[in-house]
Amino acid sequence: MTLSGTCVIAGIGATAFGKHPGRSSVSLNVEAIRAALSDARVDKDRVDALFVKPPTSDFQMLYTVKVASALGIQPRMGGAWDQGGAANATLISIACMAIEAGQIDIAVVSFADNPRTGNAAVYARPRGDDSLYGWFGTLPGYAMIMQRHIGEFRTPPEAFGAIAMAARNHGVRNPKAQVRNPLNMDDYLAADPLVAPLRRDDCTLISDGGGAVVIMSAKKAAELGVDAPVPILGWGYGQTFYEVAYRRDMTSTMAQTSGATALKMAGLTPQDVDCVQIYDCFTIAALMTLEDYGFCQKGQAADFVKDGALMQDGALPFNTSGGLLSETGMPGMQLIHEGVRQMRGTSVNQVKGAGNVVISNQGGVMQTHSTLVLGQ
């Protein structure tokens, strides 16, 4: 028995990305959900499950109940899932399993937050026991991992610059992207480190915004006449230690397990993949995910990403709406949306002939990982 292709993403919706002063995360969720339901042409009263990634900057108890109440629905099933930035992809797979088990018919998965105009202090919080020695905020952990990768594999800065340039230059052509100014290698290399070796353009945006998807079975989508349902071909998960310093190998992630599981479920190999939407909170995260998914050997990403390989017309088109480095820092959902657009043929940077897309979501300092594979 396989669940590959039995469920689809029937609708997607999002708010604008950037600044939403005075808006609550609940109201942003509601706006995104309404847009997704409109895209799927589904009335909100037909939704019988609501799964929400809780807001990073303002974690709340019974958050899904608050969103459902604001939306004016009373779903049979619901809940919030705390897996950091990996949660959105995981929640989609949970919805699929609940649908196949006959527990629900139509599910909504959503996420919204307002750290840019609300409370960004969460990104500066102490990190584990090492906070006793001055480890505060998100950047130091990624900087340590990046430094280890450079030390082990002599990874040149141009490798990270190629990732930043691909994301940014795809974002230039996305009218909804938060940052749309182009980036070249000279500009990337000229920027001073924020936390060495992380430069400014290695780092994610901080954004207000929300996004949602509507999930149902392929059979239900046919019954309802959904215009452009996108089959969910595979998914997978992985998780490692909380403390970065405790990890046996700082240059590998559980993307290895997550990606291999999802590709096996979809019946694909890395060589079969047409395009990717990779969690690029930092360029080192994207680079290591490309390696761990098997697109290149460990330590060889520098050769893999050079010469425009990640651009729209390259060997492996990457983050074609701009990702976290250009479109929005909203963790994970925007990558799923762009995967859907690629399969629908509606991306502003449409990859010619793309018949599948691999999407990664990641949480914490590379602690959790979730993978989705979508098809046509």
Automatic annotation (TrEMBL):
PANTHER family in the record: ACETYL-COA C-ACETYLTRANSFERASE, NON-SPECIFIC LIPID-TRANSFER PROTEIN-LIKE 2
**Which Pfam families does this entry report, sorted A to Z?**
Thiolase_C_1 (PF22691)
Protein name (database record): Thiolase family protein
What is the species listed in this Swiss-Prot or TrEMBL entry? Pseudooceanicola pacificus
Please state every residue range assigned to the domain named Thiolase C-terminal: 240-375
Against CDD domains, the record matches this protein to: SCP-x_thiolase (cd00829)
Top-level division of the source organism's lineage: Bacteria
Instruction: Cite the SUPFAM superfamilies for this sequence.
Output: Thiolase-like
GO molecular function (one): acetyl-CoA C-acyltransferase activity
Gene3D superfamilies, alphabetized = 3.40.47.10
Q: Where are the transmembrane segments?
A: none
